[in-house]
């Protein structure tokens, strides 16, 4: 366990922030940490001093009993109060700072929590995706968050603090990512059987890479009739085996219950971050969704091996 601290990768560490929100939380944490170190050293030193100085010795007389020492009483009431003031002031200042109104040019992403996946909508861009949010480096992002069912909590530790995602209410997180890369996150409020399987990623892209990603995501899928074999057959499996009832693929189907699959092939993971988006991962997921993610609403659809291979190839082609 101690060696784990030597790891070079900190995918989910709040101690290695990569956004202004995370920096503020980190500064606050370090401030309070040093106050706590001071309190620890003073209290333990006083305890050790008393233990050794006043221990019972053979032949020693009973110690003098002291009751109601005014100076001591005042000192140990005031000292914690002063420490609390030094903790409270930066804490409250940080709370207000992280609740401040976003800049006018911020990118809005609507975050919708579902049991057990994340929907990300970009109202300014008109695009919808799931479980992997792309944002440009250096631009403020406003997450406008709500839930479709129960209470979830959005937490990407490197970006900043967690915040609850509640049905019937909108909560907000504002952050400006400062470095390019992939940030891990997960639901941080117990929300049912697969709470631990409700992960997500935030991909922080260079601005031009983000623009390319957004352009690509806006493209509708190739119409089924224009597809080459065997992708057309794969699309037929999608259309005839029930997938279309819950999932949307722009230009092909318009289900609303499950994640939008228009560009599912462009994601690195599936099923809310629990499996790699490879033919093997996708097959494993489709074969046994409830086994992979207990309580999942995704039904297990009986498919032959051939149908499975066709469907997987079709979904992977949607990039
Ligand atoms: Cu959603 Cu825990």
Total strands: 14
Please describe the biggest sheet, giving its number of strands, its sense, and whether it closes into a barrel.
5 strands, mixed
Helical fraction: 25-40%
What is the radius of gyration computed over CA atoms, rounded to a whole number of angstroms? Answer: 27 Å
CATH architecture name of the largest domain: Sandwich
How does the helix and strand content classify structurally? alpha+beta
Unique ligands? dinuclear copper ion
Any overview of this molecule?
With 319 residues, this protein is an alpha+beta fold. It is built from seven helices and 14 strands. It has helices at residues 20-53, 70-98, 207-218, 231-240, 279-287, 289-292, 305-317, and strands at residues 107-114, 117-122, 127-130, 132-136, 141-147, 152-155, 163-165, 171-175, 181-187, 199-205, 248-249, 253-254, 269-270, 275-276. The strands form four sheets. The chain has a five-stranded mixed beta sheet with strand order 3-2-1-5-8. Strands 4-10-9-6-7 form a five-stranded mixed beta sheet. Helix 1 (20-53) runs antiparallel to helix 2 (70-98), helix 4 (231-240) crosses helix 7 and helix 5 (279-287) packs across helix 7. It is elongated and about 100 Å long. The mean pLDDT is 91. Dinuclear copper ion binds at residues 113, 116, 152, 187, 189-191, 195, 198. The site of dinuclear copper ion has 9 residues, from loops.
